[in-house]
Amino acid sequence: MHITTSQTSENRKRHGEHVLISLTYIGKNIEMKTGIELTRALEQWRRYFEESGLVSALVINDGYFVQNIQGSRPAVNTALAKIVDEHFKILPNIVKLEEIEALRWDGFVTKHLTESVEDEEYALKSFSAGSDFNPYLMKSTQIESFLKVIFEDG
């Protein structure tokens, strides 16, 4: 049986590969991975996302993180299932899911918030409801603005 390009393209559309989505979720850093262990984990995820055709923006501190994943609908759903399955301790909470026209991030970008004055300004500049960075206290619009400011300024 010979498969034409139009049949292959049609098969992809049946699974939603032509639809780009953006998924933002927050989580708690319960495992408290730091230093080299965290670096290794982030590198594994970067490679996984790259192989899956996904892009991502991740902001992490010692207690919490915010991640936005963008790509085809099936790839994002597979990544979310992998996150929930392999990292159930992070208690992921989806805060926003939407269809998009184009990918926003350039690969897998990360920002580790430290206790520096600059990072405190990012985290607290009208985005967080408390004195510390806690995305669970933020509305989805605040989280979206927060990601935009962090990665456009930094």
Quick overview of this protein structure:
With about 150 residues, the protein is of the alpha+beta class. Helix content is about 40%, strand content about 25%.
Q: What does the radius of gyration come to?
A: 17 Å
How much helical structure, as a percent, in the residues?
40-55%
Query: Overall 3D geometry?
Result: globular
Mean pLDDT, to the nearest integer, reads 80
Under the CATH scheme, which class of one domain?
Alpha Beta
Biggest sheet descriptor: 5 strands, mixed
Strand order of the largest sheet: 4-1-3-2-5
- Stretches where pLDDT is under 50 for at least 5 consecutive residues are 1-8
The end-to-end span amounts to: 52 Å
Write the layout of secondary structure elements.
Layout: H1 5-14, E1 20-28, H2 35-52, E2 55-60, E3 64-72, H3 73-86, E4 93-100, E5 108-112, H4 117-124, H5 140-153
Parallel strand pairs: 2-5
Antiparallel strand pairs: 1-3, 1-4, 2-3
Description:
The protein is α+β, with helices and mostly antiparallel strands and 154 residues long. It has a domain at 5-110: 2-Layer Sandwich (Alpha-Beta Plaits), CATH 3.30.70. Helix content is 42%, strand content 24%. It contains five helices and five strands, in the order αβαββαββαα. It has helices at 5-14, 35-52, 73-86, 117-124, 140-153, and strands at 20-28, 55-60, 64-72, 93-100, 108-112. The chain has a five-stranded mixed beta sheet with strand order 4-1-3-2-5. A hairpin with a 3-residue loop joins strand 2 and strand 3 (64-72). The longest helix has 18 residues, at 35-52. 22% of the residues are buried.
